[in-house]
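Appendix B: complex inputs.
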Amino acid sequence: MSAALLIDFGSTYTKLRAVDLAARRVIGSGQGPSTVATDVRVGMRAALADLERRAPKLPRFRYRLASSSAAGGLRMVTIGLVRELTAEAARQAALGAGAKLVGTFAYRLTASDLERIAQLAPDIILLAGGTDGGNMEVVLHNAAALAASAIDCPIVFAGNRAAADDARRLLAAKTLACTGNVMPEFNQLDIEPARAAIRQVFIERIVHAKGIDRAAAEFDSVLMPTPAAVLEGARLLADGLPGVRGLGALLVVDPGGATTDVHSVAAGEPAPGVIPQGLPEPRVKRTVEGDLGMRHNAAAIAEAAGLQAIAADAGLAPARAAALLAQLGADVGRLPANAEETAFDQALARAAVRLAVRRHCGTIETLYTTTGPVTVQRGKDLSRIDAVIGTGGALVASPDPRAVLRMALADATEPLALKPRSPRLLLDREYLLYACGLLQSVEPQAALELALEHLVALDQELVDERTGQG
Amino acid sequence: MTASGQRTIVTGVIGSDTHIVGNRILTMALEAAGYKVVALGALTPAVDFVRAAVETRADAILVSSLYGQGELDCRGFRDLCTEAGLEGVLLYVGGNLVVGKRSWEETEQTYLAMGFDRAAPPGTRAEAVLEWLGLDLAQR
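Resulting structure:
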């Protein structure tokens, strides 16, 4: 049997998936605590022992690939020139690389900005600014400022190409990687080179810096941050491979404990006659809602959605909902222990998904001009995508994941949001998206078919409606 | 100016104005004359001209307005540039710049007072704009 072991060094758990590559089958799953803070091997061994308990007689693994979001994830600071342009492009590149953005800066860095960056202690800084041949002064000012500071993390330069040589000279004493400009021409996004450079630094330096390589005997390589693995999995599922059809344009939503991640793989171009405005959006896009987390940020979900509305959705009295919310704040590891708590969790997840997907999707607006009304679009039009995939513990544990995922759909109360109208609703019940993202680097076809076979369809009626059958 | 010495020009139609044809002709003429053009197209808010000029280190911004609201849309344009650190940037405006009956001299004065370096009346040919640019950029 040809088998692979896929490892996720997470922030709470070390998770394993053992898969049979030929049979496209999950052999077993295992879970241990996350022990990166002390010794990553402890959690890894516990997870392996758990896996062996569930799946005795494990085969020899041909691949043992890992992703990591442990030790705070890949903490990044991004720097650009104009906030809406290169600073935004840098932000998109870092998010697409699976980073946890801890700070974003624009224009000239001030002394207090540098102090703030030092405090944030990022793992990597992404330095952008200027289109190719455009403004060089600001990105070079920022390079010189970083050079003169005590900040010693690796820096990825993805700014004006004409400034790259000078930046290299200025930053000679730092660890530096130079890559293509995140915005080579005005309003043209090119984040793939920066993503690849960030990933390379992650593999070469961050894995070691975080002590994950202490478990090196148990795996072949740590390939990428876990969110990047999920994004790669989503990309493969959407696009498919020659001979294996993918799902088409899709969106992945992951309501987690601290944040809600949304990934989309879709061009998101405007419908005919609609005029796009603002920066073009990456086809493979990730957003992270830092204020929407099922545990660490449950109070923030309630603030954003309204506790009254969440209580009503859960069928609870507002006072009771407030008490449950306080309880979650005090005990972030808590799992629902009764029907009331389950209903409250469900309502929180529904609110998080609704808000996170709305923020991820673009919007349309009608402008009235002297030649008549025109419709303009900001962000991505995801109204016609083919699939919405739910992943993560909150959805898998939900008694009604379909009701949670339906919150990702367009609804009449938000007519200007370009949310999906009639996609298939799918659940990543086995938590295979990250595994698929890792596996696609070595066995893309097995990765794709494994994921396709294990996604659970939640909403056949919608599909029938869309295809005119049923 | 880019590293190769090419001058960069930002063009666009300001405000809720969809009249793109003249602006496009101008953009093509500028490109043919060897300028690097960042064409923002129709329906461009004032602030987007400025952002684009900052990021591309533009030498000049050419604003078109055809629908009569230009005076409102262009108010404070020079201040926006100054605010964004574009003190020396060359600013031109052209098109149907006002509604109603006002002499061109009066209209031109209005825009020059707003901080534009040149104002082009309706019917100005692309060649005239290229000539202005040649003269004005040579002094910078």
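The longest strand of chain B covers residues 8-13.
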